[in-house]
Write a structure and sequence with these properties.
Distance between the termini: 44 Å
Strand content: 5-15%
Number of domains: 1
Radius of gyration: 18 Å
Shape: globular
Number of helices: 10
CATH topology: Rossmann fold
Number of strands: 7
Strand order of the largest sheet: 3-2-1-4-5-6-7
Largest sheet: 7 strands, parallel
Structural class: alpha/beta
CATH class: Alpha Beta
């Protein structure tokens, strides 16, 4: 039975991928930050461990426990844990930007480093990173998130080159709008870290608040979390995995537009996006 460790499984993409892979015969090590979520997912039949990717000791302990249970092997890692910090670049403090990188990038990178020795020893492995269309196409009021995903993409491109010939493949999953708890979580971070009333962007922020508070689909071409599961399944099953798996129409569209259009024209299109 193949094994996979997945971060950020309490809801949304991680939750759907964990259940989807378990149904397909994988031994899934699902992880959540809170003890309550761990207990809830255990009650649903998943093999669950507590993991806070912002905590080095938590990462080391989680990986040690996984390898103990498998006899020292792990076939795949899906680095999924993350959140979005909305706000104009000038309204994001160093503290808030650091927190965004701690979760979205540094924690994911440390988790990868923790499992790599086992994958090298066994001579194979799949490492997947959940990136975003915003990992290559920047949008207003998403600077902290953009930056964390741009950095993730650059590091993964480097890692892919460094692991050539080892049997360990690295792929980026790049979703566009997906139905999940991403917007409610982003709203909480927006209200926590941005002084909306004092900002020169406060009028524009009103539109952002409407988008973040909207129930259901907040953007065209929104897909369910199962669309990301499909991409993960392709990446795990491929004999030669692609470097990137793009999910949703906006991701495919902006991937090509970025290569075809002058920067000024693309800026005008992205500048009109909500």
């Amino acid at each position: 039975m193949k094994s996979i460790l997945i971060s950020g499984c309490s809801s949304g993409i991680g939750y759907t991928v964990a259940h989807g892979l378990k149904k397909r015969g994988w031994r899934v090590f699902a992880t959540c930050r809170s003890a309550a979520d761990v207990a809830r997912l255990q009650g649903e039949g998943l093999e669950v461990l507590q993991l806070d990717v912002d905590d080095s000791a938590s990462i080391a302990g989680c990986v040690a426990e996984v390898l103990s249970r498998t006899g020292g092997t792990l076939d795949a890692l899906f680095n999924n844990a993350g959140y979005g910090q909305p706000g104009a670049a000038e309204d994001i403090s160093r503290h808030a930007l650091r927190a965004q990188f701690e979760t979205n990038l540094f924690g994911a990178w440390e988790l990868m480093n923790a499992v790599l020795p086992a994958m090298r020893q066994q001579g194979h492995g799949r490492i997947l990173y959940n990136s975003s269309v915003l990992g290559f196409a920047a949008m207003k009021y998403r600077g902290a998130y953009n930056a964390s995903k741009y950095a993730m993409e650059g590091l993964c491109d480097t890692l892919r080159l460094e692991l050539a010939g080892t049997g360990i493949a690295v792929s980026l999953i790049e979703p566009g709008p997906i139905i999940s708890r991403f917007r409610p979580n982003a709203l909480a971070k927006f209200l926590e870290n941005v002084n909306i009333a004092a900002s020169v962007h406060r009028v524009s922020y009103e539109a952002q608040l409407v988008r973040l508070k909207k129930e259901g689909e907040a953007a065209p071409f929104t897909l369910p979390e199962s669309a990301v599961l499909d991409a993960v399944l392709k990446a795990l099953a491929a004999g030669k995995p692609a470097a990137r798996y793009r999910v949703t129409v906006p991701t495919h569209l902006f991937w090509y537009l970025k290569r075809l259009l002058p920067t000024r024209v693309l800026d005008a299109l992205l500048g009109r996006a909500a």
